[in-house]
From TrEMBL:
Residues 30-137, 150-243, 254-353 form the Cadherin domain. Keywords: Calcium, Cell adhesion, Membrane, Repeat, Signal, Transmembrane, Transmembrane helix. GO terms for cellular component: membrane. This is Cadherin domain-containing protein. GO terms for biological process: cell adhesion. Residues 1-24 form the signal peptide. The chain crosses the membrane at residues 363-385. The keyword Lyase does not apply. SUPFAM superfamilies: Cadherin-like. It is found in: Membrane. GO terms for molecular function: calcium ion binding. It holds the Pfam family Cadherin. It comes from Sinanodonta woodiana.
Amino acid sequence: MSRRYKNWIFNLIYLLWLPLACKGNMTPVFSGTYPVILNKNEEGGTPGGTLLHTLTATDADSTDVITYTCTFIPSNSSTLFTYSNQTGQIYTATGTVLDYEQWQQYDIYCTATDGVAIGGPVLISVVVQNVAEAPYFIPSTTVQYFTLPESPSGTLIGHPSFTIGDEDMNEFHTWSKTGSGSGASYVYINPTNGTITLSQDYDRDTLSGTMDVQIKVTDKFGLSATATYSITFTDINDISPVFVSNYSFIAGVNTTVNTSFVTVSATDGDATSPNNEITYSIETTSTGREYFDFNGSNIYLQYSIDAEYGSLWTFRIFAIDGGTPANTATATVSVSTYSSTTTTTTTEPPPGYSWFSDNSLNVLMFVLAGVVLGVLTGYMCCMCWRYNTYGKCLHDQRTCCVVDRPEPTYPIVLVPPLATTLTTGRPFKDPYNCTPEPYSRMGDSTTRYSNVTPSNVTVTAVSPDIQANRNMLYSRHDDFPDTRY
């Protein structure tokens, strides 16, 4: 038999034997319906060590031992899962979590084998469900501090120093203030980036130096993270000092050196030191600086006063705050000086000090005295005028006339008209011996005289001397204008 024929016989026998040899070994068959889809929550929803699925396969050969083999897609996800090749149980690996943002679906292909035949593969898909996760701050922050000077509305306070972290995919976040905190009504929060600005003027001189604002960052699921903006406002030197008043005092040339005269006072509305701290000084170019200086807020005499500057002079003083730059207020000091040795500690006014400056009673007394003196002076002037005019100061009701000269040595001579008048009873006014009848008013020139008779008169010849004497005599008695002889 040839070699070729022998090989043909051997192959035929092998082909006939092989089906008979395999007839007693069956392929493992998986139980259940595949593929299996497992929806699992991410993060804490599916912690490490969680049983995901148990594989079950059967084999008609009762003596066969089935083992399982799994392959993971993506391949790097094999660290997320673990399984038992004996029991077919598939777990999440200890210490790991499913993360939707990292991968949304994992495919696990499994086969079962009895050592000869292989059943499968079957597919188990683990679908990770997105779970809303709260945002957080990076780095972890609960308070952020800002410092700025007191400022007007619209001033930028600052930007957040942290960023927002969120495990959710495709997230967006909104910034806001929660409404709590002492500064909620004074600030505006940009909803996009968290920038904070003043929404109204903030005056440190009238408001607190610090304020707090609670801010919140909210994601699309309504979850949020919170923090506090703590804002400190510094005081700026924006208010100038104000003197309470101007000042004045009296100083003598012999007033003791170091004597204090007046305590000045100025106020400053700034809130904090040194902006509201005040120091006082005297204008360096003024006369006052030569003699006076400040001891705190007291003006005192540092050198003896020289009277050459007069009795009244002024100088300026300044109130200067401690801010940068410093603000200044100005007041005027008036100094009254006198040359006596009296100092300002005495209660009596110095020599030359005018009573009219502060004593209204003295003024009234001087005015009344002046009025009385004026009345008396006018009365005396009136009396002198009457005397020079009438020869007397007051009218005498009992005496018709006053003759201050001796009786004439010449006999009285009546001219014929007067003699005729006398014989007919015409009144005759005798300046030497007369008694007035009742009259109607002072100085009445029609006063009648009844005791003049012709027997009282001696008639002689008329002499020129007598005529001249007559004219001289009656020229002084104007209240008898119609008497002639």
